[in-house]
Design brief:
Length: about 550
């Protein structure tokens, strides 16, 4: 008889302490690891703290008022067992979001997939009460069948959706600090998705900080030490930043982000966001100023290309690419031509020509664009593009890096004939996420995943320097950018640990290290006019202006 009875080892006093030291959601965990809520009822109903209701007709009380053990070993009627220690946990426990703050849609997709739970919400979501503990046996089977049908239909709808990949560092930040991406800062003025942005109001006068340096021929760059502005407003990683190439308008800074927007900032005078553009339906991977400084070319993961006019807020050109766009570069001479690269084995050259349509309606300005040339190689992705020799040649960095295919890491192309000039440039087993041209010397820099900057000649045969190597930072797979100062004496690069490192171009020694960001620093760019003014952006979504 003793083998048929399981002794009641649940002590109400011993289980009260773990319940008080539980998490914020009010859950309590026993030794078996099964999470269950602590349910208390009024004393008049005769319900114990374990959540089982004992009435006068309870099958667990004998006529002699002698209480039997709470659990038995037989499995004929598992729904009538009030103890959850002897029940197997549900294979698919129902979960719900906190009622205080509903989940927002994913920043990388148009809409949140059905059944998708953000990690930060999943770590703090409370479980629904375990109704099995106090549900009658005749309704238990109905609830299980209804929940099973709902979960199966929900699972089928969730499988049809594609969940976006969230990097490990971003997931850890969301768990440790859920408000890091919660928007504690006020959102800068912008246009809602799908609507045309308002025209950008730019003052006709030159900034008083830039005016004294416009007529100077040589500007020596010094090491920045302090933060001038800390620009917040993006709700996703900032992929790249660029100052306006027109010197009189170089107070404006362009930033492209994974939150499907690109912004224009006044990063010299006030540090305010001038305009937000939401013309893409997915992450914006690349955005470039036009050489005239009045338009912005953008491309992203939605296969779309947009040329936005800042003065009118309209789309001068909108095209569709065959692949996800990761890099864009205007031709240095012909400003109607640009190169587009991304998740494809081919780089395409687009040509834009403007015209006018006349008739009964008012004159409408329009632009057409078509692919005029393709540059194809046996690769899978183009990481960056760099023009050489005033646009007659250009370099492309790819993702090809194996033991016997290092000849495709950096490829030199003839722009006019689409012929390969050289593919024996970089022979080490590292990819190069970014390229930068020196402003005065015939050399260029390549950021490598070997955690160093390599120096190459910008003329054929593009040999790599074995004497100078700039190292000390970390790349770790990020698209960490690098750049030279306008005078050419300093080099700056970001780092995967958030630091900003500056090197001397001549000696390859480290000139300065700035503790810039809490997450990976992706973009670094010197101001074209102001000496020792530096802009940096990070994977955390913030931008800093140093001086």
């Amino acid at each position: 008889m003793a083998s048929l009875v399981a002794y009641d080892d649940s002590d109400p006093e011993s289980e009260a302490d773990p319940a008080r030291s539980g998490d914020a959601a009010g859950q309590m965990s026993d030794v078996s690891g099964i999470s269950r809520p602590e349910v208390e009822f009024a004393s008049s109903t005769g319900v114990t703290k374990e959540g089982a209701q004992h009435t006068g007709n309870s099958p667990y009380e004998d006529p002699g008022k002698q209480r039997l053990p709470l659990a038995r070993l037989w499995r004929s009627d598992p729904g009538s067992c009030p103890s959850q220690r002897l029940q197997w946990p549900s294979k698919e426990p129902d979960s719900t979001f906190p009622t205080s703050e509903p989940p927002g849609p994913s920043l990388w997709m148009n809409r949140a997939p059905v059944g998708h739970v953000p990690l930060a919400a999943a770590c703090f979501k409370p479980l629904k009460p375990a109704w099995d503990a106090f549900t009658p046996s005749h309704t238990h089977s109905k609830l299980e069948s209804t929940a099973g049908n709902a979960s199966s239909s929900q699972r089928k709808r969730g499988e049809a959706c594609v969940l976006p990949y969230i990097p490990k560092r971003l997931r850890q930040l969301q768990v440790l600090n859920p408000e890091a991406t919660g928007g504690r800062d006020v959102e800068p003025p912008g246009s809602p998705a799908g609507c045309a942005p308002a025209p950008l109001c730019v003052a006709p006068t030159v900034s008083e900080f830039i005016q004294p340096y416009l007529n100077s021929q040589y500007r020596e760059t010094t090491v920045p030490k302090k933060v001038l502005f800390h620009l917040r407003g993006h709700r996703g990683p900032v992929n790249s930043i660029q100052w306006c190439p027109v010197f009189s308008k170089s107070h404006m800074l362009l930033s492209a982000s994974m939150d499907k927007t690109f912004k224009v900032w006044n990063a010299v005078d006030s540090g305010h966001c001038l305009q937000t553009y939401s013309v893409h339906s997915e992450a914006v991977r690349a955005a470039r100023w036009s050489p005239c400084g009045r338009r912005i070319l953008s491309g992203g993961f939605d296969f779309a290309l947009h040329l936005t006019d800042l003065e009118t807020g309209t789309q001068v050109f909108s095209g569709h690419s065959d692949f996800r766009v990761t890099t864009l570069k205007f031709h240095p001479k012909d400003h109607n031509v640009f190169l587009c690269g991304g998740f494809s084995s081919e780089i395409k050259a687009w040509d834009m020509r403007t015209g006018k349509i006349t008739g009964t309606a008012p004159v409408v300005s329009w632009a057409i664009a078509w692919v005029v040339k393709g540059y194809k190689a046996t690769i899978q992705q183009t990481l960056d593009i760099l023009f050489l020799q005033e646009g007659s040649e250009f370099l492309s960095s790819t993702d090809a890096s194996t033991r016997d295919s290092a000849d495709r890491t950096i490829i030199a192309w003839d722009f006019r004939t689409a012929a390969k000039i050289s593919n024996q440039i970089f022979h080490e087993r590292y990819t190069c996420p970014s390229l930068a041209l020196h402003p005065r010397e015939p050399v260029f820099l390549a950021q490598t995943n070997g955690n160093y900057l390599a120096l190459f000649s910008s003329v054929w045969p593009y040999r790599m320097s074995r004497r100078r190597r700039y190292e000390g930072h970390k790349v770790e797979g990020y698209a960490v950018g690098c750049e030279c100062s306008p005078c050419g004496d300093l080099l700056v690069t970001g780092s995967a640990d958030g630091r900003v490192l500056m090197f001397s171009f001549r000696t390859a020694s480290r000139a300065c290290t700035l503790q810039g960001h809490t997450q990976a620093c992706l973009g670094t760019t010197y101001h074209p006019v102001l000496p020792s003014v530096l802009g940096t952006c990070s994977w955390g979504g913030d931008i800093k202006i140093w001086h």
